[in-house]
Amino acid sequence: MGWNDDVIETFRSSKGTENFWGPKLIILHSIGAKSGETRLNPVVGFRNEHGWRVVASKGGSPENPAWYHNLRANPSFEIEALVDGEIMTVPVTATEIAGDDWQEAYGAITAEEPQFGGYLEKTDRRIPVLQLTRR
């Protein structure tokens, strides 16, 4: 079992309470851009009035994570998230936050989780932020 598998298993078995990110962890059920197969990726989800925001930081690597390309190619998918104390499967649509709205979104994320600010210092790319809106 790989790291992602361990994180997902712990998230599910503990009902979202026993993991590094606590209740912020969500599991993307993205659809592969090339394969069309479902891929599971645990990421930090920042709740807002529309759903969740996710950051394609890849720890500040020079390239975007594979799941980012999957969400761009297939923006309608499902996530698993802790909602009212229960893990629920939620249908969402991903849209990338662009322009001036990106600065505000990334600023809110770094205010909540400061380490995301450090990722910007590690890369020259503009780290994408995607809004996951409930369908």
Features:
seven-stranded antiparallel beta sheet, 135 residues, alpha+beta
Question: Could you explain the architecture of this structure?
Answer:
This protein is of the alpha+beta class and 135 residues long. The chain is 30% helix and 35% strand. The radius of gyration is 14 Å and the shape is globular. The protein starts with a helix and ends with a strand.
Specify the structural class. alpha+beta
Residue fraction in strands: 25-35%
- Biggest sheet layout: 7 strands, antiparallel
- Strand tally, please? 7
Beginning-to-end CA distance, first to last residue = 32 Å
Query: Strands of the biggest beta sheet: in what spatial order?
Result: 2-1-5-6-7-4-3
Mean pLDDT: 94
Please state the CA-atom Rg, rounded to the nearest Å.
14 Å
* Oligomeric status: single chain
Low-confidence stretches: none
State the shape: globular
Q: How helix-rich are the residues, as a percent range?
A: 25-40%
The number of helical runs is 4
Topology:
Layout: H1 3-13, E1 25-31, E2 38-44, E3 46-48, E4 51-55, H2 66-73, E5 76-83, E6 86-96, H3 99-112, H4 115-122, E7 129-134
